[in-house]
Amino acid sequence: MRSSHHGDGYDVLVVGGGIIGLVTAWRTAQRGLRVAVVDPEPGGGAARVAAGMLAAVTELHYGEELLLGLNVASAARYPAFVAELEAASGRETGFRACGTLAVALDSDDRAHLRELHALQQRSGLDSQWLTGRECRRLEPMLAPGVRGGLRVDGDHQIDPRRLAAALLTACERAGVVLHRARAERLAVVRDRAAGVALADGAGLAADQVVLAAGSLSGLLAGLPDGVAPPVRPVKGQVLRLTVPAPYAPFLSRTVRALVRGGHVYLVPRENGELVVGATSEEMGWDTTVTAGGVYELLRDAHELVPGITELPLTETRAGLRPASPDNAPLLGPTALPGLHLATGHHRNGVLLTPVTGDVMAALLADGELPEEARPFTPHRFPSSADSARQEQPA
User: Which of 77, 155, 178, 291 has its CA 20 to 30 A from that of 71?
Assistant: First the structure.
């Protein structure tokens, strides 16, 4: 779908400069289209808080078998995607093919993990059940009380902050224009999306507009009734600790756990950082780091790895995941011609980065959404402005 503009407009305007917006812009620019991104702080967003687990297998939940296929497809693309991105940007992304160990600390948690293992096996996924002793042999820092676990060698990790920085550089090198401003209103001309008005009153014209603003995607003024995406913010609090050299290696792989029914994960970076997360709270637009959230994460992490309390606590942060009603992304065209969505990725935004970039670029360049993304179009939800609209964050 080549440009119809003969002036200063763009072929594609991406609203939102998080990792989803940036990968969409980069991949689309590689297809020869003129692309711009509008965001006050490109490279920010939920990626600043995310742990970066590429966990297609251990993130499997009941009722999300359809999403599993997209997750697995994206995970399979990661090694080649990272190699291309690092070459294009000259930046490292912190990608580690280190695998994941999911463990249980009591009999109820063990039973739940056994059920998850059975679901993984029915879904054709590769995971291995281990005894508690076998888990501790892999990760000696684990507590003696670990009752069993799942070894998943195909669930890896990446550093989302470094991923975002690499995508930002790759976009700039590919000719993507960055407008470091806030999109105030969608421009609609003759019943078609035609660009945006910025907060300072300036206007940007485009043949196609992609709304990729995460949990803020439903708040852009000017969206016609029934077109605003039904995404809501889900708060997550995350901690970062530093593993001093004498303790290294503290953990050799990502460790996830069920602790009295609650989820906690520890993601060790090669640079000595240890990410601990994450809460999941329906708190609207609140991004306050709370004593209770920090306490719960440290308490559960301490039960899993007692030595963690000796490590320096270097950062506490809260972010907002963009969640859709079925926890799957919204990808593709809306009821308004020229307006497309790439949002609602919830806890899988980092994992789905490669496949999102591929399918959105194909849609924008060729005019057709690839088959693998068709179950996730916005049209699967009833058109209702009431269900999509949200209050503006304070």
Answer: 178
